[in-house]
């Protein structure tokens, strides 16, 4: 190694996960086999986000800087033979977002050290990454309480001349989850035709948007469960469970280039009927003690209804009641149009399935963007009544060890290569920091759910 035998950066207490507003301190250790002349020894700490339109490319198309600080720990002189230690300390801004690594972009934090030598001599540098975790408290997310529900009615043609109608309704037990929690999904399928349907399926989807001049969308299936068919003229209720694996949080607060969204997609293989249920994934789970009271919720719902009635047109639009091939509505029956606004109604308990305050499904352009690109790999073996999870498919690897990326071994839902996670994941705890280097669990041996999911015959009511 020549003159320089050792040149490394270490953090105090071997800490690698930090929070915004904390200070990061450590030492730079240099071990020399012989004396070395230098003009300066500097230490730099920076954090930034880079995005690109090519998979796993580091030639960033756009960048966003969060902080960049440097300090000189030694001036011009000669470093003697032996070991030298130089301490450093930096303050992390409170606006720094959570670390992230995806196919088309990364949020990176690192400390670098430089030995600036005289002209014609070799310069030396060392680098060490660290990870940022900005906890997302689901209790602070607006309109997070209650269930998320949606419904879709679609007409289709079979046997060239016959037509049928399919009514699909679905609901999740909550709108916000943390890793290791279970989504309780209930779906109702009414087959108003003379043809049997294909298998039912429910998928936990992740959609990452990289905000460029022409945005890039990375859509992947995190987990998928599959049910049976619905016979002609029958109505079936399907209940399923989906485990939330270690995933990045829904909101990267402080980052304007990367947007993460999650939703549950419920669909039929045949005919092609689908709806989506948007959910939030955070680090601090919902606390039932902080849930607004029913009276407050009812008052808010009544105020919203009164405001909507006051802004309504006096004459209803005649075209809004015409039949269409596809219609999306809330599970709560809609009221007939009223000729004129009425006074605010008395406060009533908030409907369990209501979603007037929050859209029950992504807008039309959301679904087109999510479903219009390259479709994910649907080759899941044994999907029926079981959840298969590929830990390598999770796009949460907030590290800088680019040379440690590995190929996926399990079934992946991404259309292109994905880097394997090599960094700590947020835990389900409220305030505790995650233990460094916790890899995603192996779900083939997971103990979730504690009770076996119901069989298809048990969960179906004909």
UniProtKB/TrEMBL annotation:
UniProt similarity note: Belongs to the arrestin family.
GO BP annotations listed: nervous system development; protein transport
Biased composition annotated in UniProt, kind: Low complexity: 440-454
UniProt cross-references to Gene3D superfamilies, sorted A to Z: 2.60.40.640
Name the record gives this protein: Arrestin domain-containing protein 1a
Region of interest (Disordered), ranges: 307-386, 402-462
Cited Pfam families: Arrestin_C (PF02752), Arrestin_N (PF00339)
A GO molecular function held by the record: ubiquitin protein ligase binding
Domain of life: Eukaryota
Source organism per UniProt: Xyrichtys novacula
Biased composition, class Pro residues, residue ranges: 334-350
Transmembrane stretches, start-end: none
Record lineage: Eukaryota, Metazoa, Chordata, Craniata, Vertebrata
GO cellular component term, pick one: cytoplasm
Start and end residues of each Arrestin C-terminal-like domain: 162-286
Feature: compositional bias, Polar residues: 319-332, 410-421
